[in-house]
Write a structure and sequence with these properties.
The protein has 416 residues and is α+β, with helices and mostly antiparallel strands. Helices cover 46% and strands 11% of the residues. It contains 13 helices and 9 strands. It binds adenosine-5'-triphosphate (ATP). It comes from Actinidia chinensis var. chinensis (Chinese soft-hair kiwi).
């Protein structure tokens, strides 16, 4: 070998070409000597040793890289699992939902809750808030569970979902989200810290770029809206029960407004379909804090800045009070009902406003009129600054309720 190299050097130095020169090419540069028949080597040449070593090193490197990648992937999964446990959340990244239930197909999957991203995968995070009832709830549980459409509102669709552990949930799929995702997550965490027995807390929420879901416990006794519709078909909903509903929800909302004023979180979409009746038939305010503000009287609130959401809630509760008094349900955020009541009151036909069943029942006129007066103040669109605060409203309604109870007690005692 050394001898051949020396000969090659000599040949180069002498300006000779070694192409075609068998003496000079030998087995050093076989491909550069096309005219030569390949020389048969005896045993393994140095070149082959070098070549095999190269293959071996490349193979070993690829093997080590694969091992390294596999280790790294395992570690990431472990870290993620730890993080998720810590946060009690479920990350179903790369989970492709399988729709197993026929009912589900008729509900959630049809609605697109599959949350398919551009890549066809689901990148999601279901945050379970502090609720023992749904411990262990996973996003894929929701996707696979049978679901039934409860209704479609202005801001989305609500499904009744039966979870694997037998829990019944209401899942609201929100459309036209107005709150940035991060703000919304913050809101939900803040709301989870402020609890009132008559405010229905979300038990979990899901927030991705494509999909926003809110999970509540299903309330089997329907809503105040449905109860009022029932009265139009002759169902009994007496005056003291109506006053009790009014007092309970205003007390709950006064508490929420007080606790969340600094955070600027009002209800945002207050109406009778968002007042649900729990298993004890007690009213509960649902969907608190979901919407920034949703009210047709919003234009009249432009000067109220951060306070406008709270002012809008007063309008919303005003309409609910009018519904309780009239037995009619408001349309277009209660604007039609509020306008009708205001026009009747202006004409001084106040008596015409009240639900006939209340008059028949013998509800005290004083109480009815007091409640009407305060409700009218709540729906004042020409000077929203004159609307009472939720706290003032709660105090007035509690007083009316106490007066009613006292007068009922007096009439019972004075009965012969
Ligand atoms: N947790 C729940 N339990 C039982 N029924 C519910 C629950 N949440 C909502 N619903 C009912 O589902 C139906 C649809 O609700 P949704 O909130 O979509 O209607 P909406 O309040 O009229 O509209 P929106 O809130 O979008 O303006 C309503 O009848 C509502 O009372």
């Amino acid at each position: 070998m050394r001898e051949k190299r020396t000969r090659m050097k000599i040949a180069l130095d002498a300006g000779q070409s070694f192409i075609g020169n068998p003496e000079l090419c030998g087995d050093l540069l076989p491909r550069q000597c096309p005219s030569l028949p390949p020389k048969k080597s005896k045993g393994i040449s140095n070149y082959q040793v070098l070549m095999f070593s190269g293959y071996f090193i490349i193979g070993l490197t690829i093997f080590l890289v694969i091992i390294l990648l596999l280790c790294k992937r395992g570690k990431t999964k472990e870290e993620r699992a730890n993080l998720l446990n810590k946060e009690a959340s479920f990350d179903d990244s790369f989970y492709k939902p399988s729709f197993t239930s026929g009912e589900y197909k008729a509900g959630l999957s049809k609605s697109g809750i599959s949350a398919a991203t551009e890549s066809g995968m689901v990148s999601s995070s279901l945050i379970v808030l502090t609720s023992p009832e749904v411990n262990g709830l996973k996003f894929d549980d929701l996707l696979k569970a049978p679901a039934e459409l409860l209704g479609r509102g202005k801001h989305g669709t609500v499904y009744k979902v039966i979870g694997e552990q037998g829990m019944t949930l209401a899942v609201k799929r929100i459309k036209d989200w107005t709150i940035p995702s991060n703000d919304f997550k913050q809101r939900m965490r803040r709301l989870d810290q402020v609890k009132h027995p008559n405010v229905l807390p979300p038990v979990a929420f899901y927030c991705s770029k494509q999909e926003k879901l809110l999970v509540y416990e299903y309330q089997e006794n329907g809503s105040l809206f449905r109860l009022l519709q029932g009265t139009q078909m002759g169902q009994v909903f007496d005056w003291s029960s109506r006053l009790s509903v009014a007092a309970t929800i205003t007390n709950a909302l006064a508490f929420m407004h007080q606790e969340l004023r600094e955070d600027g979180i009002a209800h945002g979409n207050l109406k009778s379909s968002n007042i649900l009746l729990n298993k004890n038939m007690e009213p509960c305010v649902s969907e608190y804090g979901l919407m920034m503000v949703d009210n047709d009287d919003q234009s009249s609130l432009s000067n109220f800045g951060a306070n406008s959401a709270f002012k809008a809630d007063i309008y919303g509760i005003g309409v609910i009070l009018l519904e309780l008094l009239t037995g009619k349900v408001g349309q277009n955020n209660g604007l039609d009902l509020a306008e009708w009541v205001l026009s009747v009151v202006r004409e001084e036909w106040t008596g015409e406003v009240f639900d006939k069943s209340l008059i028949r029942e013998g509800a005290r006129e004083e109480g009815l009129v007091y409640l009407l007066q305060i409700a009218v103040k709540c729906v004042n669109t020409s000077s929203p600054e004159a609307r009472p605060s939720m706290n003032q409203l709660a105090r007035v309604i509690n007083t009316i309720k106490e007066e009613e109870e006292r007068s009922i007690a007096v009439s019972i005692v004075s009965e012969p």
